[in-house]
Amino acid sequence: MSSAAPSAAFSLHPQLAGDSLPVGDLTLCQLRLINDAGFPWLLLIPRRPDISEIIELDEGDRAVLMQEIAAVSQALKTLTGCDKLNVAALGNMVPQLHVHIIARFKGDPAWPKPVWGQVPARPYAEAVAADLISQLRRLLSFS
After folding, report:
1. What are the tens digits of pLDDT across the range 14-44?
2. What is the CATH number of the domain that holds 63?
3. Burial class (CB in 10 A: 0-12, 13-18, 19+), 68
4. Where does the HIT domain start and stop, copy by copy (predicted)?
5. Cβ neighbours, 10 Å, residue 123
6. Rounded CA separation 86/100 (Å)
7. Would you list the DSSP string of 76-101?
């Protein structure tokens, strides 16, 4: 996927910025890694201002979002060999539209429940996060 410059009016919600590490910009979305080594967990955040719901994106952006969800999901599945991918756009706590893509394993600490609030977050070791981000960038053909 090619990189594109973010929209001038886009700004990342502080909660999303604080909870995650940047991976890069796709055509529509900023891709970020949630800083929790307990779960391989990515966020796609469309770089559009004042959007909280998928239905608020125009038809073209909705199509690009679906393509990016599929590409990022495939990359995460390839990297992790997970048993299941959880994909969700909840936004109950953070109103900015963001899509969670979480690699789940039958033996993970929250299985089969949702990951939210099950176990305390464990930040990645810097080298581990850097390696995972590098692998994601390679699989998604960031330039």
Report:
1. 999 999 999 999 999 999 999 999 999 999 9
2. 3.30.428.10
3. buried
4. 42-111
5. 12
6. 7
7. HHHHH--SEEEEE---SS--S--EEE
Contacts of 39 (CB under 8 A, 6+ apart): 102, 103, 104, 108, 110, 115
The identity of residue 52, as a single letter, is S
Query: Is 1 a domain residue?
Result: no
The domain tally of the chain equals 1
Positive or negative: CA dihedral 59, 60, 66, 72: negative
- Tokens of residue 11, six digits: 């700004």
In a domain, residue 6? The reply is: no
Find the domain containing 52 and state its range: 14-112+120-139
For the cut 90, the answer to whether the pLDDT of residue 9 exceeds it is no
**pLDDT one-digit tens code per residue, 101-127:** 999 999 999 999 999 888 999 999 999
